[in-house]
Amino acid sequence: MARLVFRKNGKVIENPEEIKSFLSQYGVVYDVWGVDRLPEDVRKNYDIDEENSKAIIQAYEKELKELKEKMGYITEDIVVLSEKTPNLDGLMAKFKREHHHIDDEVRFVVDGSGIFPVKIEDDIVDIHVEAGELIVVPAGARHWFELDENRKIKCIRVFKTPAGWEAIYNENETATMRD
Fold this sequence. Notes:
This protein has 179 residues and is of the alpha+beta class.
């Protein structure tokens, strides 16, 4: 399950309700949708194709519809990062640069896991997410993304506009990232 790790003092929060409560103070949405409804072969398949994508999106149709209506999102797709991803290290180098978006960054983790370090006040909070969990990093929040030791993640991404997801880097700001 999710875990928050505060870099300044090493504090860890693992209780889902405490995570949800803390993050909501800063506009970050955290929720658990679970993965029980997905057949394991669909969930674990990292060779994504149209049939696999449709099966995943259909399995979460109700939650996606509610999220879209509540937050104004219009479309979704599936993203996969794994050892099979061409130029994975090059992609990860881009994702590990501190940035923000003009739109929310919405990810529902279908399989795998990852870390969203987010600047919160004068600290950096590592938000560890796993299969079955939803995270919404609000527009304008300074953050980046890292794969964890498993080096794979499969997510539903949700957008208001495709252009809104483009990263905006500020070369004058630096973040403390793990190498």
